[in-house]
Amino acid sequence: MKQIPLTEEEQKLKNIFQTHTDILSRPFFQPALAELSEKCGTDLAHLLPISLDERLMENAVFGETEDTAILRHLRYLPAMYHEHTFFEMIYVFEGTCTNYINDPPCTLKKGDLCLIAPDTLHALAAFSDEAVVYNFMIRTSTFEQVYRRFLCTDNALNDFFMQALYVKRRNASLIFHTGDDVSLRDFMKYTCQEYEKQEKYWPQMVNNLLHAIFILLLRRHEEDIELPGTPDLKVLDEVVDILHDIHTNYHEVTLGRLAKKFNYSERHISRLLKEQTGMNFHDIVREFRLRQAAGLLANPNLSLADIVEQVGYSDVSSFVRIFKKQYGRTPADYRKTHAFPAATVPKDPDSLSSGSRCSTS
């Protein structure tokens, strides 16, 4: 990817940064925004084309029918700490950037890909003309629909997904150092172009391209992973193993069977899950079932009755009630905005990978 000239907005941000480097070179929290604006003599919030909210919600980022949003990170954008309710993937095409997610902060260089889990406090700084950094933002529900097949295999992404979705921990991130992997780079570029053009079936194309990107990451770079700020590994490994087992056997799992398999008492299993996830065993099983059902709803070849049976519920009406409470809409309404066109979906549900504009050069 060739170097991209500074936009008018980026040039304004650069001028402000060069004049006030001493106060803008460090990340800050939202309450300091007004004070920084006063010191800079510029209303930073109104200068920027994106919101500098400390907590970004999905409805503020995604269009009604969008599962993914991709944008190029503005160079010289003030680095404000924030978190969001969705997944974020940062990819560095050129130059470097600084990700303030742990202490010390992490420098991402060309070819680095960083995954950030929901509810993870972080700030990103790209203070150079050479930096070409893209943010890929993915709804949490879509993230699991697209990558749910990874959850049945033993790999680093599997562990990250489980931690991100269920384990209560701050600073959940995963970095792949891909270097000069041209194939991966081309897939990243093509994904950006698909989002920019938004031609027929573009959401499905983007989802499948992202799925292919993750396959390439696991195929070529599973040994090139960095886990910043890794917590107590022993406890984390125990919880992740238990969550894997629940996910694999969610339609028939019991607390007694888990206790026997992991050689713990039922009370210990319950306490461990509650401490690390904030949910009890039955809540976790319900979450797994509903997430699986949401993924299956993307396949128009499956009836609702088939899906209900597959995820372990015996009554359609009770399932509809529970699903609506979780997702805020009925399965039928959910399917309207998430289903693939029938002609593009295989009959075998297990073969599915469901689920500011960017510009590339």
What report would you give on this structure?
- With 361 residues, the chain is an alpha+beta fold.
- It has two domains: 50-226, Jelly Rolls, CATH 2.60.120; 233-351, Arc Repressor Mutant, subunit A (Orthogonal Bundle), CATH 1.10.10.60.
- The chain has 15 helices and eleven strands.
- The protein has helices at residues 8-19, 21-24, 33-40, 44-47, 140-147, 156-166, 182-197, 202-221, 233-248, 255-262, 266-277, 281-296, 304-310, 316-327, 331-338; strands spanning 55-56, 68-72, 83-84, 87-94, 96-100, 106-109, 112-116, 123-125, 132-138, 173-177, 225-226.
- The strands form three sheets. It has a six-stranded antiparallel sheet. It has a three-stranded antiparallel sheet with strand order 6-5-8, with no helix packed on it.
- Helix 5 (140-147) crosses helix 12 (281-296), helix 7 runs antiparallel to helix 8 and helix 10 (255-262) crosses helix 11 (266-277).
- 35% of the residues are buried.
What is the secondary structure topology, with strand pairs?
Elements: H1 8-19, H2 21-24, H3 33-40, H4 44-47, E1 55-56, E2 68-72, E3 83-84, E4 87-94, E5 96-100, E6 106-109, E7 112-116, E8 123-125, E9 132-138, H5 140-147, H6 156-166, E10 173-177, H7 182-197, H8 202-221, E11 225-226, H9 233-248, H10 255-262, H11 266-277, H12 281-296, H13 304-310, H14 316-327, H15 331-338
Parallel strand pairs: 1-3
Antiparallel strand pairs: 2-9, 4-7, 4-9, 5-6, 5-8, 7-10, 10-11
